[in-house]
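Something for you to look into today, if you have time. I want to see for myself how the chain folds. Leave the record below and I will have a look.
***
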Amino acid sequence: MSFARRLERHRRSVFFVAALCVVAGISALSQSPVALFPHVNFPRIVVTVDAGDRPAERMAIQVTRPIEEELRGVLGVRSVRSATSRGTADVSVSFDWGQDMVSALLLVESAMARLTPTLPPGTQFEARRMDPTVFPALGYSLTSDTRSATELYELAEYDLRPMLATVPGVSHASVLGGRPRELRVTLSEGQLRAYGLTVDDVATALSSSNLIVAAGRLEDLHHLYLVTVEAQARDLGALAEIVLRAGPEGVVHLDDVASISSASVPQWTRVVADGHEAVLLQVYQQPDGNTVGIAEQVRALLRQREASLPADVRISTWYDQSELIVASEHSVRDAVLVGVLLACLVILVFLRDLRITLTALVIVPSVLATTALILYALGQSLNIMTLGGMAAAVGLVIDDVIVVVEHIATRRGHVGPLEAAAEFTRPLVISSSVTVIVFAPLAFLSGVTGAFFAALAVTMASALLISFAMAWLVVPLIAERLVAGGGGAHESSEGGLMRGYRRLLGWVVAHPLATSVAVLPLLGIGYVAYTAVGSEFMPVTDEGGFILDYRAAPGSSLTETDRLCRQVEEILAETPEVAAYSRRTGLQLGGSLTEANEGDYFIRLHSGPRRAIDEIMSDVRSRIRTHVPGLEIEMAQLMEDLIGDLTAVPQPIEVIVYSNDPSVLVSSAHRVAEAISSVSGVVDVNDGIKPAGDGLVVEVDLARAALEGLSPEAISTAASAQLRGVVATEVQRGVQMVGVRAWTSANRRSRIGDVEALRIRAPDGHLVRLGRVARVTRISGEPQIARDDLRRMVAVTGRIEGRDMGSVVADVRGVLSRPDVIGPRSSYRLGGLYAQQQKAFLGLMAVFGAAVALVFLVLLISFERFRVAACMLLVALFAMCAVVVGLWLTDTPLNISSMMGMTMVIGIVTEVGVFYVTETARPADVPLQRALMDAGVARSRPILMTSVAAILALLPLALAIGEGSSMLQPLAVAIISGLVAQIPLTLLVLPALMKLTRARPLNARVPSTVSGQAEG
């Protein structure tokens, strides 16, 4: 039984399965998780270590280095990088891509648990995996003109945070800023001296007089009783009555030596939103969470709760990731709709048959819906890459529909639609194979490129496979119904354009060498374009907001840093595009090591018509540098900053300078920073030297301390109690436990001289000034110590503005090659996003080579002629030159998106060549020249139709209309350039090459009306 009869017999089953897939796909679209990026397991774990306040050099020797050496031996570790500051360290552990990061986290935690007992007492650590969910998906600020920061904190911490944490898909919610409540016991120095008491005495009395202890159980009269001993201070009055000392001379109560009041926990950070002190509420999603669904539910809960909040409390959005996702969805939707309509218009113009055009109009949405079903089954989310893949696939899907519909229309009157489809099965299988197989090597691509573009490859490969099935099985059945009774054969009379092409093709086939030589200049033009086109890592897209990192002078106080930031906020208030912002001082959005002199802003811009985000960032940067000279700043969009944090390469330019001598390292870093600052396009240069704040060193005189009966430990404990207080106990206040801090008066510890005046009680009861047993010295802050695989280094970084990465780095290499920059006692290497770009390009070049080899293999299997396969592949490689020229003319940089498009062009151009070469198959007695002529005339219309339709379908994506669409704009530009070039290359150059090499396929030809007329 023939294919046509089998298809006719099972047409109801085919229609039912297709309809079922479409309905299921539409359902999957509504249930699929929606996120900004594909879920990626970045192979990086960060271990944050806290070991008190020990100096950076001592911290590096006693804590950081042993941790580095221990973690370097963990299975699968590729590199270890650390940053050490006073008492804290971040150790970044990188693994190979593809590692099971859950197991890796357990191995790291196990290694740290083994090592911790050997580290200084009190050392604590936290290990966390790095993935896109380390950044919040939603951010809200709470501000008020009348309520205190403590009240705002309690509202966020005990009311809103637990409510939002219950939303499905939310991993947790966190609160930044505010002032947690505590009770302050402010001790009077004179009264303590009069009663012979110290801060430690008061803290001990508070701790022992406010407790609840389970004493045991008692069974009596058939009941079991829990016996508790309580001495709880439930209010300020009860605290005041606590007895500090009792004896024959009387009882000393707490209020005899101290004043008791409500206060807040001392803060060395500050959080601001839109110019007001604020509390930030940040919502983090689970890796498989639906960002859009989470945002909708969170907004609904906040609207409900807002009605019962105090009228003076404002809840504002400072970040909402779902806005970019929804905007991207709308952009893709519009691109798909416009592309489909334009492609159908092409079919209507060429075939002048509305019924056949409707076939394409039905198939394309069906393919996309079924693709959504496949993505749902594979666990893929709807994100920028999968949605963009659907939009990019529209042009290729329409190709399959057009070639089948055109062949059915051409053969109408000779055979039915099902028989025509059966004739076209072999070329359709070959062409679909070459377009799908180019995605196979992407499965072996690692790094950020593989992580992000694997989702795109899966989407497009799925769409093309479904497109093949629909074009092969469903299109003929629909066409059979639509064209039934439609009359005779489709007329294909030649117009002036076709007659002109026939004459031109006749000359080309008659002079193949001249034609082949004439196309060679394209190689030269392609080379010139390649040397001129810029390069970057990932496409820059307008995300509707950006991050501004800032740093005041080393050692600047929180108050001084806040003063400078207030000037920045005046500039932001004067920038009309700024909708909202949040600021962290002493904190960072990514959770890195931070001092009181640094922090970051997240600045959210208005949607709708406005200046380009690069122009806004440049304007803000120049105004801050002019009006706030004491502040160093860096700017980046969230995606760039996020990828940088996840991969430990936060800036595009990173010059890693190595030296074992700290002084040489510092001087080299300064010279490198000065050198690269002179390069055009380099902005936000940071020399990588990060001094901590200034400090006071209390150096104990052991002899004098011994004479007073004091040990260094006793001196340290007493000084600590007076300088930062002692949280001696806690009091229950509603749902929270409030700490009780015993502390000396602020005017006794506000100046450097007050440190020497601190009084310490000796064991025999007499009081000693600290200055009598120790020397207090002021020191400048030590720089943060950074190491890369146990080698001491400094990373000099910079960002790029107004130029492409490739040309900027070339200039950077030039200035670094000067002998006076690096010096003989240090070395360097380039890291940052540039290093990631180079790795990505090498990987994509390997993918490109593998794709070419696989396409050649498919062609060889299909036609069993080396010369035929070589001619087709050579035409595809000529198209690569046209792609580079297209990127150059449109000022589109070469990046991982455009290189992905170049790889796809290999399959697309070869696919069109398959249809032409299949048409050239003739009996052996037909001259090759006549076969090439007949094939060109027969395939010129479908080739022109598919190319124009695909170009128009991709045009909305290439124009980057709408937010979030810039990510795939270079891919669309590359494909369109290849599609433009494939028309003359396939219809003129390919026949010339086949005639020149006498390449002729073995497979049986596909009948066509045009070729039949030519033969007759």
